[in-house]
Amino acid sequence: MSSTQQDHKLRVAVVGVGMGGVAAGLDLLDLPNVDIQLYERSVEHRLAGAWLGVTPSALKRLVDWVDEERVDQVITRRYNAFTALHWQTGEILHRPEQVDGTKLTKAERLDQMGVSNAIRSELHQLTLELLPQGMVHTGKKCLSLEEDSNGVSIKFEDGTDAIADLVIAADGINSGIRKTFDPDYTVKYLGNIVYTCFGDYDELKRDIPDLPEDDLVLYRGNCLVFMGYVGRNQYALEMIVPEDMPESKTVRWNTIADEARLNRLLEYFKDWTPMINQFVRFAMKHDIDMVMLPRIRGGWATSMIASNRIAYIGDAAHPTAGAFSSGTSFAWEDSSTLVSALKYAFQKHNKQWDAETVGDALHVYDEIRSSHYKKVFQHVLKFEEGWKNDLEDMAINVSANNVRWITNHDAKEAFKSWEKDHPIA
C-alpha cells in the first residue's frame, strides 16, 4: 500500500444540517483520517417551534454526546403513556400506571417506555453547539451532484462547489438529492395541519386552573390534541386539525398562524373541553406564536443509498409524518449505523479510504437499515389506518409497548449482531 493511499483523507459532505445532519457530523468525528463538512441551505438556523417527541432510542444517543444534566435542561422525560381525556367533558378515559422517574436507575431511565418531550429548536441548538467551529457552512443550497472517478462534485446556488468521497443526504422530506435520483418522488399532504404553541406552565396555570400536569391526548373524529411538558417548565399545546381547504395544502413548514387562523381554531374547538381554547386565548393574549406544520409524507425509499458514494439518512429516505414520534430517532440511528459500517469497511480494507471501502460500507449500511425499515413501514401503514378508522385505539396506545422494538431500537447493538455474522477475515 502506498503512503499516498494510506494518508488519503475521507472527504465527507453532509447536505442538510437539521437533526440528522448534526448527528452525522458528530458521529463522523469518531472516524480516523476524515475531513467533514456540513452544508445548510438556510443562511441562519431557524428556531423551528415544533414539539419534538424523543424516543428512548434517541435519548440513549443523546447521552452519548452530552451528560444527562444538560439533556434534562431541554427535555422533559416521561415514563408513562399519555393520559387520554374525553374531548368534550375532559374526564379521564385512560390513565396508564404512573412511574416515578426518581426511583429508576440511569439504565432504567433511558430504557423505560414512554416518549420524552422537547422543543425542536432547543434540542437542535444543543447538538449543533457540539460541532467544531468551521464545520458548518450556511447559505449552501445544493443544485446538483455529479460523480466521476475523483468523487462527487456538488454545485451550490451561491456559485461555489465542493468535492467529496462520500455525500450524506440529510436534506429532509423535500430532499433535492432524493429527487435527483428518484424523479418520481413526491410529497403528499395528508389532510391535517399541526398547530403548536408553548407557554410557561405556572403562567398557564393562573389562566387555566384546571390544567393538569399529565401529558394528555384528546381525540374526536380525525382530530387529535396533545398537551404536555416540553422542557424548561414549558407546557405545550399541539392540535392536529383536519383541513381540506386549498390553501392548507400549500402551507409551508413553520408558518406562523395569523389572527384569522387563530379565530378559526377557536370556532373549531368551541365544543371541546374549555382548556384548549383557554390555551389558544392565552397565546393570543401574550403574543405567543402559534406554529403551523403541514402533516405531509413522501414515499419511502427502497434503498438507503443512491450510489456507491451517496447515502440517505432521516426524512430524505423515510419521512414518518410523526408516526411513533420517531423521526429524530430514525435519523440518529441511520447516522450511527452508517458510521459503524464505515469503521467496519475501513478495517476490512486495510485501514485505507478509497472508493471500494466507501462502496462496501454503504452496501452494509443499506442492508441493515433497509431490512429494518421494511418492517417499520408496515407499522406506519397500520398507524395511518388507525388514524382513519380507529383513532380512539391509536390515541390510547400512542406509546404502547407493542412498538418498543421501534422506539427502543438500539442501532449499535443491531450492528454488533450483524457484525458477529460477518467477521472480518
Would you give an account of this structure?
The model has no long low-confidence stretch (mean pLDDT 89). With 425 residues, this protein is α/β, with parallel strands linked by helices. Strands 6-5-14-15-16-13-18-17 form an eight-stranded mixed beta sheet. The protein folds into two domains: 10-47 and 120-186 and 299-421, FAD/NAD(P)-binding domain; 189-297, D-Amino Acid Oxidase, Chain A, domain 2 (2-Layer Sandwich). It has helices at 3-7, 19-28, 56-65, 68-74, 106-111, 120-128, 176-181, 201-207, 259-268, 274-285, 327-348, 355-389, 391-396, 404-407, 411-421, and strands spanning 10-15, 34-39, 51-54, 75-76, 83-85, 92-94, 116-119, 136-137, 142-148, 151-156, 161-164, 166-169, 187-200, 216-220, 223-229, 234-242, 255-256, 291-298, 310-312.
If you consult CATH, what is the topology of the largest domain?
FAD/NAD(P)-binding domain
Report low-confidence residues grouped into runs of 5 or more: none
Q: What is the CA-based Rg, rounded? A: 22 Å
Strand order of the largest sheet: 6-5-14-15-16-13-18-17
CATH level 4 superfamily of the largest domain:
FAD/NAD(P)-binding domain
N-C termini distance: 19 Å
Number of helices: 15
How is the main sheet built? 8 strands, mixed
Q: In total, how many domains does the architecture comprise?
A: 2
Beta percentage is 15-25%
